């Protein structure tokens, strides 16, 4: 019996090289309206193959007036990292299913949403995690923008103001809608809502 338990523990340890929780402010934007930053914890697991699993558990939306929309567990797995020197960055597009949260007495909408497209971009170091998530709730006809933490890492590979700031570019939403046309790259995100956009063929974040 002890050998079986030991083998199970070793297998579990081999599956994930490290696991860590990050606590920071989370801001949700729906239809251009943002919630105040709320302290939230995101779980991050790094597998032996170097990929990342990110979990935002019991995700709940504040609809105002004391009303809440209980979504469920947001889990994005198998995220590949890029080494940026002092931190790692990532950008991933997936279709996920959202299971219900831990409290069975609440009405969680996640399971009824079916396949949910997600776009997530972010950065992490040993003591800091930042990410921006676009959750396409197709059945509800809404895109939920989630920002966790602050993008104040030493260098920003996701900045729209890199390269030639005077270059004229087009700006698209993640759904392919043209948001701006023929604008200076340095001003590409000016006046836009928070979220992830495509600028000059690259995903960038509007905070």
Shape: globular
Radius of gyration: 19 Å
Major sheet details: 10 strands, antiparallel
- Main structural class: mainly beta
Number of DSSP helices?
A: 1
CATH architecture heading of the largest domain? Beta Barrel
* SSE string, helices as H and strands as E: HEEEEEEEEEEEEEE
CATH class of the largest domain: Mainly Beta
Structural domains: how many: 2
Work out the strand percent: over 45%
Please report the total strand number as a whole number. 14
Poorly predicted regions are: 1-16, 155-162
Find the CATH topology of the largest domain. Lipocalin
Q: End-to-end span in angstroms?
A: 53 Å
Q: What's the mean pLDDT score?
A: 81
Can you offer a commentary on this structure?
- With 207 residues, the protein is mainly beta.
- The protein folds into two domains: 16-155, Lipocalin (Beta Barrel); 159-207, no CATH class.
- 7% of the residues lie in helices and 54% in strands.
- It contains one helix and 14 strands.
- The strands form two sheets. Strands 1, 2, 3, 4, 5, 6, 7, 8, 9 and 10 form a ten-stranded antiparallel beta sheet that branches. Strands 12-11-13-14 form a four-stranded antiparallel beta sheet, with no helix packed on it.
- Strand 13 and strand 14 form a beta hairpin.
- Mean pLDDT is 81; it is low at 1-16 and 155-162.
Short description:
By secondary structure, the protein is mainly β. The protein has one helix at 2-15; strands spanning 16-30, 33-34, 38-47, 52-64, 67-79, 82-83, 88-96, 116-124, 129-137, 142-148, 168-173, 178-184, 195-199, 202-206.
């Amino acid at each position: 019996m002890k050998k079986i338990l030991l083998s199970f523990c070793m297998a579990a340890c081999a599956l994930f090289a490290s696991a860590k929780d990050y606590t920071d402010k989370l801001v949700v934007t729906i239809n251009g309206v943002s919630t105040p930053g709320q302290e939230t914890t995101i779980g991050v697991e790094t597998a032996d193959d170097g990929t990342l699993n990110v979990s935002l558990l019991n995700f709940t939306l504040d609809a105002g007036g004391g009303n809440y929309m209980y979504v469920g567990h947001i889990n994005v797995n198998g995220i590949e990292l890029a080494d940026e020197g002092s931190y790692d960055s990532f950008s991933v597009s997936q279709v996920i299913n959202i299971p219900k949260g831990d409290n069975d007495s609440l009405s969680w909408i996640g399971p009824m949403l079916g396949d949910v497209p997600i776009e997530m971009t972010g950065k992490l170091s040993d003591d800091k995690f930042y990410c921006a998530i676009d959750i396409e709730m197709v059945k509800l006809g809404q895109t939920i923008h989630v920002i966790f933490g602050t993008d104040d890492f030493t260098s920003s590979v996701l900045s729209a103001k890199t390269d030639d700031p005077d270059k004229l570019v087009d700006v698209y939403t993640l759904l392919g809608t043209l948001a701006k046309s023929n604008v200076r790259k340095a001003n590409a995100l000016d006046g836009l809502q928070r979220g992830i956009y495509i600028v000059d063929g690259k995903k960038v974040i509007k905070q």
